[in-house]
Every structure is written in structure tokens, then in C-alpha cells.
Amino acid sequence: MSPDSLLHDWQAFGTIFENLCIRDLMVYAGAQELAADVPVRYYRDDSGLEADAIIELADGRWAAFEIKTSEAKVPAGVESLKNLRAKVLKNPRARTRPPEFMAVLTGVSELAHEVEPGIYAIPIRCLGV
95: helix, coil or strand? Predict the structure, then answer.
């Protein structure tokens, strides 16, 4: 696939971008002192609810990520993350703790910012800082 054809195929571009973000998250999560054996996972349930990445530390803290190519897609990512949080925390007997935070990683965006309490929009370039 040439760079020109990639720029005209947003489906392929989005898939490649998502994989690059997952790679970065695996590097950063794996470097944490409390990293679990498999610190980054994908979540999808039978209803189609998904999170592109869940990072879990050995002490049970976790965070959820949606990956979007642009700031314009952040609202959809936020809704998906809120649905995930609501579903996982719905059963009090499951003893699942709330996420430490949730974030939508973006490719084209100016600044990291809090969209709603505990949910952030973060340009991927900010992870290396």
C-alpha cells in the first residue's frame, strides 16, 4: 500500500493508526512497575460494546481507551467509554473497581483536555512527553 493510497483509504488508515496506538500503550504500560503480565487488553462483549484498550495494573487499577483518528470523533469515543463503565460497574457483587480514568486517544488534535470528569481526550503525540 502506497502512502498516497493510504491517505485515500480512511478505513485502512484508521486500522493502522489504532495498531500503532496499541503498540505505544503496550510499551508504556509494560514499563510500569506494577504492570500485569499482559498489561494491555482488548474488550468486546456479546452486545458489541468494546474498548480498544484496557490497561490493568497488578494491583487492580485499570484504565480504558478508545482510539479515534480525529477530535471530531471524540464524542463517539466518550459515549462508548461511558457505556463500558456503566456496564462493568452495574453488578456490585462483581467487586470491579471504577477505572482510574478513561481516555480517547486521537491522531489529529491540538491539546489534551478533560472532556467529562474522569474522561480525557489525548493526542497520541502527548504520550511520549
Answer: coil
Model confidence, pTM: 0.89
Q: Which tens digit of pLDDT belongs to each residue from 91-115?
A: 888 788 999 999 999 998 888 999 9
| Whole-number Å distance between alpha carbons of 117 and 42 | 23
Q: Give the pLDDT score at 129.
A: 54
Q: Taking CA 18 as the corner, what is the angle to CA 71 and CA 101, rounded to the nearest 5 degrees?
A: 65
Inter-residue contact 25 to 53 (CB < 8 Å): yes
Contacts of 123 (CB under 8 A, 6+ apart): 105, 106, 107, 108, 109, 110, 111, 112
